[in-house]
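The instructor's notes for this session suggest beginning with a concrete chain rather than abstract definitions. Hand out the sequence below and ask the class to guess, before any prediction is shown, which regions might be ordered.
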Amino acid sequence: SYGYITNKVPVDGRSVVNIKDNATLALVGIYGSDPETGVAKMELNADGGTILPSYTPFVPFISGCVATLGDGGLTLDTGSYDVEVDQAFVDKEASAPVLTKKGMGKLIVKRDSTHATTRIEEGILSFGAGVSKFGRNLEFAKGAVLELASLNNVINYLWDWSGNTDGYAPLNNGTLHNFGTTHLLIFGQTNLDKLTPEQIAVATAKGW
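After discussion, reveal the predicted structure:
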């Protein structure tokens, strides 16, 4: 498909996109905001499945949704495109999903997100201005790249877990959530080589 999905009805519960298992959704954009207020309204629920651009993607490619990930997670396949996502994701209750990036293009994230894990299998992850986290855990396969400016954001704005023994921290909406007491940044050698001893010390001191 070359089309897009947009929220045309400003009524809660009327616009929902569900993707699961091995399903693939190919399109040029998803816009979930209320057309009158700009407030995120459309539900995007993923428990498996893949979303990818079918043609040159709109900017942003995904935005304005209330996006929830189940245990099956979600795969974003950028292909060869640079894909901008202005979208936060949250975990379904009692789930620990993985958002996986495939494709050699660049995934540009424009908004902090508190879902469990982002795994970059191929290509580049880039953080937009002011973004410091895209998932509570970051994993990079060998050869996958986190841009240097984004790497600096990650280290400088890591949540400070030092002295925090109960694992609670605020979500994007300000409520507290128990994230547990183990917090990991997993980098391949390409990204590890970019870290200075001072940056490693900062991350360690913050409980990572």
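Then share the key points. The CA atoms of residues 48 and 72 lie 4 Å apart. The chain has three helices and 18 strands.
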